[in-house]
Amino acid sequence: MDFFKWVAPAFGHFADRWSAETIEGIAEWLRPHMSGDCPKDCAILDVGGGTGAFAKRLHDAIGAQVTVLDPSPDMLRYIPAEGPVHCVQGVAEAMPFEDDTFDAVVVTDAFHHFRDQPGAAAEFRRVVRCGGGVFVEEFDPRGLMRRIVAAEKLVGEPGYFYTPEDLCVFMAANGVEGHCEKVGPISYRFFGKVTG
Ligand SMILES: C[S@@+](CC[C@H](N)C(=O)[O-])C[C@H]1O[C@@H](n2cnc3c(N)ncnc32)[C@H](O)[C@@H]1O
Known about the structure:
It is built from seven helices and seven strands, in the order ααβαβαββαβααββ. The protein is an alpha/beta fold.
């Protein structure tokens, strides 16, 4: 089943799920990772960026060039062709970009959909320059999320969720050092840096 073909129209309703304060907090963390003046010399990749809602908010906050990489044409078609967000069809595990193209990658609500997470992390390290940022927003599979994890598997998605502690260990083993911050009862954010 092509899960995102069916849920894509609903994602329009989630476009505002990040408050202005949240976006500014994430932008504040990302800005020092930009290698030059924005927009000319700074570039962010939103992996699994879907309909581009988060990418657009980051573009507006930072002024960076933001590219969405996503395999689903049904999600990507919500990104206006004439808008500031560039979109590319493809998967996290085999990105169609040169080495060291980006100052940062961001991933929101998508990492658990990647079928080869070590492969995706290796690609983060390859396409982000050394010292660049890796931001991941994810759900903690414990507690309230248990049913959602099961439901995602039922609809054919991998549902490879990490706890915050395990994501930090996983990222460090893949060359991205960072820490996690809890966000409410079910979500957390990983803030990391490509170390080499
Ligand atoms: C739940 S949506 C989240 C979309 C967006 N990041 C957001 O927060 O609104 C998950 C996205 O991950 C994408 N996705 C699934 N497998 C992927 C892969 N292997 N590489 C990149 N993106 C993938 C899906 O197409 C979908 O757009």
